[in-house]
Amino acid sequence: MFEFITDEEERGQVGIGTLIVFIAMVLVAAIAAGVLINTAGFLQSKSQETGQQSSKQVSNRLQEVVTTGTVNTTDNSVESVNVTVTQAPGAGEIDLENATINWIGPSGTETLTHSTSSATDWTFNTYQVKNTDDSDTVLNDADDRFNVEFELNDHGNGPADAPSNLGEGDEVTIKINTMAGATTTIRFTVPESLGQKQAVEL
Questions:
Q1: Nearest CA-CA partner of 99 in 136, 137, 147, 149
Q2: Cβ(179)–Cβ(98) below 8 Å
Q3: How far apart are CA 190 and CA 202, in angstroms?
Q4: What is the bridge-based pairing of β-strands 94-95 and 100-105?
Q5: 80 Rama sector, left if φ>0, alpha if ψ -120 to 50, beta otherwise
Q6: Using CA atoms, how far apart are residues 36 and 29, in angstroms rounded to an integer?
Q7: Torsional sign, CA 136, 140, 141, 142
Q8: What is the per-residue pLDDT across 153-169, written as a single tens digit (0 to 9) for each?
Q9: pLDDT by residue (tens digit) across 13-25?
Q10: Which of 32, 60, 168, 200 shows a CA-CA span of 20 to 30 A to 41?
């Protein structure tokens, strides 16, 4: 016996097949959309994080107010250097205790950490000049001023691992690197004549 398929049955089978294909396409599109949304969200969060880090590296910098040197009058050399710093415009909180400093002078390059750290033999000290709160090493206000002190060897009277005193005409570059990754570069030259002076502006 032959089984005859009517036009209505053929149309019904075609309709069911089309419906199955349509549902499969919707599911694939929904999965793809979910993946795209998740990926877009991840990329957005990463770009925001990267943008914030880049912003901190640019803005969380220090600004030099003045740099001075204490003169050893015995041989007319600079025995210590004081750099007064404040927040750069737009900078956030900066903790000097977490900073590292590169000293590039006539005797070579040294990397210093704060005196509260034992990571290096020659360290730098910080002193409050003007502070709006009780923080010992944190610049968190535009009016804050701190001294960053570099004590030199001073013929054996200073830190043993510090470089020798600076002579007349010596040039030094200081790079202060904050925890956020921002770098402040300070350059100075010792005056050609230190005679009859106890302190000089560098």
A1: 137
A2: yes
A3: 6
A4: unpaired
A5: beta
A6: 10
A7: positive
A8: 999 999 989 999 999 99
A9: 556 777 787 788 8
A10: 60
